[in-house]
Design brief:
This protein has about 140 residues and is α+β, with helices and mostly antiparallel strands. Helix content is about 15%, strand content about 25%. The strands form two sheets. The protein has a five-stranded antiparallel beta sheet with strand order 3-4-1-2-7, sandwiched between helices.
């Protein structure tokens, strides 16, 4: 079970997701394209917005089993209005040298750990990519 700090961060990490505010009524956003070195505290400060008046309730940076950042985060705001403002004000804004994308959290309401793993590619590989050393031919 993850341990929560007094400011709501999980295990000292932070993740945030966000997207276009059209019709969005939730209070969580997804933030993608984070630098692996981004800290939850720096991200939380950034996600308060240019006027620093958005109320960030929780920051969770998603990590691999090894503890390395996945480069994305979930940010929970106190109100849906703050989340919508974050999407409109912080999408495509630079943070630690990277252009962030912010959208609604499409996985909101699902239990932790149920988020699908990011696509890691695929393709032919060294043996033709058809599931057999001979390229799947016989």
């Amino acid at each position: 079970m993850a341990e929560y700090g007094e400011d709501g961060a999980v295990d000292g990490q932070g993740v945030a997701y966000a997207e276009g505010a059209t019709g969005y009524s939730g209070n969580k956003v997804y933030v993608g394209n984070l630098a692996w070195s981004a800290s939850w505290q720096d991200l939380k400060d950034h996600m308060r917005g240019p006027s620093q008046d958005l109320n960030v309730a929780h920051v969770e940076i998603l990590t691999e089993a090894s503890g390395r950042s996945k480069g994305c985060a979930i940010i929970e705001y106190s109100t849906p209005e703050d989340a919508a403002r974050a999407i409109s004000e912080l999408n495509d804004v630079e943070f630690q040298g990277r252009q962030l994308f912010v959208r609604e959290d499409r996985e909101a309401g699902k239990p932790p750990g149920s988020r699908p793993a990011p696509f890691r590619g695929g393709g032919a590989g060294a043996y033709g990519g058809r599931g057999a050393y001979n390229g799947g031919r016989g």
